[in-house]
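testing teh design pipeline on a random one, pls ignore if ur not involved
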C-alpha cells in the first residue's frame, strides 16, 4: 500500500509537467530596405490563458470567438514586441488576422508591417510575450533579407536579440541548435521519463527470478552504455530521415506512441520477463522518439544554407543532454542500489508513478483532450 501512496505523491509532484509540447510562438520576418514584413503565429491556448478566448466556457475555442477578440489579441501581442533600427523605434502597422494549425493545435496568425526611419542595417528585437505567465515560453524567429537567413530564440533569459543585415553566422546557428537539443531532452518530460525508466534497473541484475544489486559498477555501466547507444542510434536515424523529408508520421500518432513507450518501459520494470534486453526496447522506441525530435526541428525551422550542420548540432545537443542525465543518475543509483528502499520505492513505486503519468499523456494524445490544467 505504501508503494501506491508513494507513486501517487510522485504523480502529484510532477503534475506541472503534464503537457509535453512547451509554449512556443513562431515569427517570420522579411527585411527589405526600411520595412519589415512579418507573420506571428501564437497558440490559441496561450492566448486563451492570457486574455480569455473561450467566452462561452464550453472548453472549445471557435473561430467566431477568436474573431470577436481580434483587437484585444493584437493589442496584447504587439504591446510586448518592439523593433528598433539605428536606435529608432519602428512603427508597427497591424494587418490581417488568420488561423493556422501547427503540430500541437490551432494558432492565431498575426500579419504586420513595421516601418523604420531609414534603411535597416542593424535591427534589435525586444520580445516579451507570455514570459509573465510561462517562464518556459519561447519565441522562435526566422529573419530573412535578400542575401541571408538568420534564426533566433527568445526566452525569458534572452528576450532581446540584435541582427546585422547581410551577416549570417553558421556558427551562430550551430550554437543555437546545440543549445536547443540540450534543453529539449531536459524539458521533454516524456523523452526524459522513458530514458530514466530504462536506466533505473541498470544497477540491478536478475538472478533466480529476483532483482539483486550488481556486484560492481562496470556491469551497470555496460548496461547503461548499451541502452543509451541503442536509443541514440535509433532516434538519430529517424530524426535524419524525417528532417530530410524521406519519411514522416502524423504528430498525434508519434506523440501517442511516445507516451505508450513510457508506459511499456514502466511495465517492463514491474514484470521484467517481458524484456531481458532493455537495449532492444531502447532501440525500438528510440525510432519513434526520433520523429518527436524531428517535429521540434520542424517548428524551429532549419536554415537551408546550413541544414546538415544544424541537424547535427541539434542531435549532438540531445546527446549532451542525455549524457548529463546519465552522469547525474547512474552514480547515485549505484550508491543506493542495495538499500532497503531502492527496489520497493525507486524501482516499483517509481515505475508505477511513471506509468500513471504516461497513461494520462496517452489518454490526452489519443483522445485529443486536456485532463489537467498546466
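output:
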Amino acid at each position: 500500500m505504501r508503494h501506491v501512496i508513494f507513486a501517487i505523491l510522485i504523480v502529484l509532484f510532477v503534475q506541472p509537467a503534464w503537457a509535453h509540447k512547451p509554449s512556443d510562438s513562431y515569427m517570420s520576418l522579411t527585411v527589405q530596405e526600411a520595412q519589415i514584413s512579418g507573420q506571428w503565429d501564437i497558440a490559441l491556448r496561450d492566448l486563451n490563458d492570457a486574455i480569455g478566448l473561450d467566452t462561452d466556457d464550453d472548453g472549445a475555442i471557435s473561430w467566431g470567438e477568436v474573431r470577436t477578440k481580434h483587437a484585444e489579441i493584437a493589442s496584447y501581442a504587439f504591446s510586448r514586441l518592439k523593433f528598433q533600427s539605428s536606435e529608432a523605434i519602428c512603427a508597427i502597422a497591424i494587418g490581417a488576422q488568420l488561423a493556422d494549425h501547427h503540430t500541437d493545435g490551432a494558432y492565431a496568425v498575426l500579419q504586420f508591417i513595421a516601418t523604420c526611419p531609414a534603411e535597416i542595417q542593424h535591427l534589435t528585437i525586444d520580445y516579451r510575450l507570455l514570459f509573465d505567465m510561462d517562464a518556459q515560453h519561447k519565441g522562435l524567429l526566422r529573419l530573412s533579407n535578400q542575401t541571408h537567413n538568420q534564426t533566433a530564440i527568445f526566452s525569458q533569459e534572452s528576450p532581446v536579440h540584435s541582427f546585422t543585415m547581410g551577416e549570417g553566422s553558421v556558427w551562430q546557428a550551430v550554437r543555437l541548435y546545440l543549445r536547443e537539443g540540450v534543453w529539449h531532452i531536459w524539458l521533454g518530460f516524456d523523452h526524459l521519463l522513458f530514458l530514466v525508466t530504462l536506466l533505473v534497473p541498470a544497477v540491478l541484475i536478475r538472478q533466480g527470478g529476483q532483482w539483486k544489486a550488481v556486484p560492481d559498477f562496470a556491469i551497470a555501466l555496460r548496461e547503461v552504455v548499451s541502452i543509451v547507444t541503442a536509443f541514440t542510434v535509433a532516434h538519430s536515424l529517424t530524426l535524419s530521415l524525417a528532417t530530410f523529408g524521406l519519411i514522416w508520421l502524423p504528430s498525434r500518432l508519434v506523440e501517442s506512441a511516445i507516451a505508450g513507450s513510457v508506459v511499456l518501459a514502466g511495465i517492463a520494470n514491474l514484470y521484467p520477463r517481458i524484456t531481458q534486453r532493455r537495449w532492444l526496447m531502447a532501440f525500438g522506441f528510440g525510432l519513434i522518439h526520433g520523429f518527436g525530435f524531428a517535429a521540434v526541428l520542424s517548428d524551429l525551422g532549419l536554415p537551408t544554407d546550413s541544414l546538415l550542420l544544424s541537424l547535427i548540432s541539434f542531435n549532438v545537443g540531445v546527446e549532451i543532454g542525455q549524457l548529463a542525465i546519465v552522469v547525474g543518475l547512474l552514480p547515485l543509483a549505484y550508491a543506493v542500489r542495495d538499500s532497503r528502499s531502492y527496489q520497493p520505492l525507486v524501482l516499483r513505486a517509481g515505475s508505477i508513478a511513471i506509468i500513471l503519468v504516461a497513461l494520462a499523456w496517452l489518454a490526452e494524445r489519443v483522445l485529443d483532450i486536456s485532463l489537467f490544467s498546466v
